[in-house]
Amino acid sequence: MSSSQCSYMYEEYKETADWLLTHTDIRPKVAIICGTGLGGLADLLVNKTVFPYKDIPRFPHSTVEGHAGQLVFGELKGKQCVCMQGRFHFYEGYNTATVTYPVRVFYLLGVKTLIVTNAAGGINPSFKIGDIMLIKDHINFPGFAGQNPLCGQNEERFGVRFPCMSDAYDKSLAQLTKETAKELCCNSFLQHGVYCMLAGPTFETIAECKMLQLLGADAVGMSTVPEVVVARHCGLRVLGLSLITNQVVSDYDSEDHANHDEVLEIGRMRTDVLKELVSHVVAKTEPNSQL
Ligand code: HPA
Question: Mind listing the pLDDT tens digit for each residue in 244-260?
């Protein structure tokens, strides 16, 4: 497949899913997309089968050196899972159909729950670096500009033409995550808020940050929303978690500058907590119940 095909046929997703099902005995009910600096989540899996993206038929893969990604199948606390180690970003030049290709494959594999993680800038002034924000809703800025992965002909085998998004983030999974954070004594840095996606790759200007604050965004990043839109279209339940890696700059007198090294550094610092939280939540998920 070309890495920037604008739309895909049902049969293409199916071919990928069927190939994976014949190459692993794992039948995942949970898929986890590991955000920037959070790839370590996949290390928790046992009885692993690992597929580099380039070896999976029709799966998108990066042609850029050093950006290898892989799908990791295995068990996490006794639950069969698949992890995406390395996601596709719009700012890399992939269109939204390509960015979300893996989500439809997960659906065809039998996945019921999608856990998305990302690194994000804190807009809410009460957030601290290292906080973990449970995503309660999102603002799809690229969608306003026509970059919605569901644009184009609707494939009814995945979902309806006009899917609801007012219930995008599953309330019972969020509640379960809150309770789990309490049990793990990490609820003091668990936040709850609205994630705003911008296309990137530039970090925000000061005026843009002020605007996002006014719009009610609590965190800003460059991913996640397309995958969530496609997941909801095909009926997956979604849990979203943002690791706040920096505070956005919204003051003209500030000497701070957003930079990617800081994002990676905080990702490394809090990745263990996030891993714990996600694995305990996965342990409690039941594909056929509200959890
Ligand atoms: N802005 C956008 N994306 C990000 C940021 C940010 O400040 N931090 C991590 N991802």
Answer: 988 888 777 777 777 77
What residues contact 87, with CB distance under 8 A and at least 6 apart? 33, 34, 35, 69, 99, 102, 223, 227
What are phi and psi for residue 32, nearest 5 degrees? -125, 125
Token pair listed for 85: 């180690």
The fold adopted by the segment(s) 10-283 is: Rossmann fold (3.40.50)
pLDDT at residue 66, as a whole number: 46
Residues with CB under 6 A from ligand 1: 119-121, 203-204, 220-222, 245-246, 248, 258, 263
Ligand 1 geometric centre to CA of 197 (Å): 9
Distance CA 127, CA 242 (A): 12
Our mutation pick for probing the ligand 1 site, out of 246, 249, 260, 268, counting the most ligand atoms within 8 A of Cβ, is 246
Q: Whose CA is nearest to atom 10 of ligand 1?
A: 120
20 Cα: distance to centroid of ligand 1 (angstroms): 33
Provide the whole-model pTM.
Answer: 0.92
pLDDT in tens, 124-165: 999 988 899 999 999 999 999 989 999 999 999 999 999 999
